[in-house]
Amino acid sequence: MKHLRLWMFLVAAPLLGTAQDLQGDSPIPLDPDVRTGKLKNGLTYYIRKNNKPEDKVDLRLVINAGSILENDDQQGLAHFMEHMCFNGTKNFPKNKLVDYLQSIGVKFGQHLNAYTSFDETVYFLPIPSDDPEKLEKGFSIIEDWAFNAVLTPEEIDKERGVVLEEYRLGLGADDRMRKQFMPKVMYKSHYANRLPIGKKEILENFTYDKIKSFYKDWYRPDLMAVIVVGDIDVDEMEKKVKKHFSSYKNPKNERPRKVFDVPNHEQTFVSIETDKEASGTRVQLMYKDYGEPKPIETVSDMEKELAEMLFSTMLNNRLNEFTNKPNPPFVFGYTYHGETWAKTKKAYQSFAMTQEDKQLDALRVLVEENERVKKFGFTQGELDRAKTEFYAMLETQYNDRDKEDSSYYVGQYQENFLNKTPVPGIEWIYNAAQKLIDEVSLNDINGLINDYLKDDNRVVVFTGPEKEGLKKPTEAEVLEVLNVDAGNLTAYEDEPVATSLLRNEVKAGSVVKKETNDKLGTTTLFLSNGAKVTYKKTDFKNDEVLMRAISYGGSNLVSDEEYRKVYLGFAAVNEAGFSGLDKNAIDKFMTGKIASVRPMISSYTEMLSGSSTPKDMEYMFQMVYAYFTDVNYDEEAFERYKQKQSGFTKNLLSQPAYYFRQEFYSFLYKDDPRFIKVIPDDETWENIDYKLSYDVFKERFSNAADFEFFFIGNIDDNAIEGFASKYLASLPSSEKREKAVDLGYRKIKGSHKKVVNKGTDPKSNVTIMYYGDVKYDPEEAMALNALGKILTIKLLEELREKESGVYGINAGGSMDKFPVENFRFNITFPCGPENAEKLTEMALQEVQKIVDNGPEEKDLIKYKEGELLDYKESIKQNRFWLGYLTSQWTDNTSPERIFTLEERIKTVTAKQVQKVAKKYLTKDKVIGMLMPEETN
Predict the structure, then answer these.
(1) CA distances (Å), 453 to each of 2, 84, 306, in order?
(2) DSSP, residue by residue, 727-754
(3) pLDDT in tens, 204-217
(4) How far apart are CA 675 and CA 658, in angstroms?
(5) pLDDT higher than threshold 70 for residue 21
(6) 3-state secondary structure string, 248-281?
(7) Whole-prediction pTM value?
């Protein structure tokens, strides 16, 4: 699971070759579907034709340089340079680059983006490929990023505020604790002192020559890759790469691109960090490798990585079983051998999230399970299941080899450039991995632990809350746990695997009527028990089927008193399993089978959501049947669920953002008797009645005739009719039909301002809300959505680019028909406390400008182009169709409206946007403001 690079290598990119003569020293081939090359100046390129999504190309500029290469007086400038590439280049002065891209539908942040890490800086540019002019400008943009950033003093100084706001966002408990444990995790390494965000004093005061020097030294051809994947002509793209990048030279006397190691150490370092604002409790155990990682280059390397993957899978399956036992030692835990913060150092690493007083217990389990493997090894049954699980994932990737999105391939080629991760393609891998994995034996895997575990080069990190009454573990206690006596350990007992998901006989019903909608491409089956099944066959993915079943009703049908006893209990019912099988038994049975179902009960509906491959679709139907007819009742499972949830939530309110949310929403819903708390506490959990929750759950899923089942994906007509007849038409049903009930509870009315003081860092957050009940109008709904997107553009221009007061800001508006006809419009942004009032006023001024004058035409065009591009991609995704069909069902609206969406987007006018702004944003509003705690 955590072998990220290996998994990307194993399943990422298709190729045409096969794995026939697999000799250990044979090199792993390169995918022939990608054209690679290197210009004379050393720049590397990757080009691949891929038609998903259509008429789009993903351009990516990868720089093999990041914060690790900064001088002492440049800390933070690798990341600052990334920002500056969006603030003026030779061909796109000042903010013209973002302005132009928005005009062709590329959204800043959502589509157009970049990141800086220790060792690389990467720029993303997805653009339309069906227009030669747009394509040419796209290449001009990445050329400018690479070599032609202007870096004027004016723009540098303006951007300081934006970067400092991003720096501010990172402040808090995690940042404080990280600064304490990093010197031990990355002992005597440059990585410990080069976090990409940098140092505040340098960001505020660096001289212009420092960032220009970084750009000149490290943005150079021999450290760059240009990646082009999409609906393109490969030959034409190669010409463009050569045209735009061949003329640039590397600097004379270029600085060597150093690789920084992480020195080994004889000591076992222990770092126990606490903070009053820490919201979670974590354990990390690292056994660092002595040497540097070896690239995966040969078939033998691949076989070793496959063995490591199987090892991790088996050990993590054991750790997962602990989370499903009484008094679990951790909320979740996992172990893997892989990269650390440094690309030059791998480690055998274990992580766990625990309850606040169980860190030593969690560490003990992690250590003991390592020692159990060392002493007894794994069982043949575990290995067989791990291989089966791997085969299933591999088969899914292979089946969808012609349906991969371009961005997926781009990521693989980036890894190949930066880390030499192989990209042979799924067809070669599909053949090679199956042959190699068959040869991996228990002895091969059981021996790995001896290389992983050691008494030196170890680090243990505890992070958690600091509060009265909570004892902080000591270093001596941690070291004592590490020195566990393996003599008392017994071998892992592999429980028998269940033979079926169902224990009761299924008496099949039948399909009594069938209707088709040729325009939508849907078929509706009317079942003998009154249930309905609507399915849409698609070719978007070869190995995907999505499901959602929905019925009106929900928790609004229970009394207010009962609601307070059950609202957290419904999810706990899932924890108990079904058909007499607990979660561990279900997980074990489902090894190698890709199918899942999750029930849920909201205020107005009950629902089941699921997914599967076409091959495993029957198991998804069986799970649906089990949730309707045979859910387990298990008090121990409920207590286990409470403990795990407490591990997640117990200290969340110590984090200012969560505390603000709790206080703000408690204020908004103070007249709603069903509003309890955003973050449940121990008292809330004590009031939950598991038996009542179970009974309500059973009642809500007792009448299949009140449900409609939706399926989207690669569906065989005969298969779904057969499964629907057997597993859905046989479900209990009645003549009763329910409706969504509006209890009339609402947020407070009027204009209000709520200021919440929490936290010691100079961080604030502002939320501006407009809301209320209205008569639903589809034209107004579209205009309100447009208003949110357009206002976001203006707020970014004014509050970020001109004022340098925020890092990010978002506005969004929507109108609902179900469950209650209403509208809502929110503006949210983080900022410095000293600027909160001023920026709030500036945001409201931008609202007023649209109220008074309507939006500018250029911004309306940006909205339309962005929405049309998103629609063009969404319409060919199964998840979009599932969400759309179910929302139209709850709204009681014709789903055929989807075919008018493009036209409705195109015909939104400035007057319509201004009209909804006047109608909805000139009356009551609520402002919520998080401010630091006041100090004397």
Answers:
(1) 18, 45, 19
(2) IITTS---S-----------PPPS-EEE
(3) 999 999 999 999 99
(4) 16
(5) no
(6) CCCCCCCCCCCCCCCCCCCCEEEEEEEECCCCCE
(7) 0.94
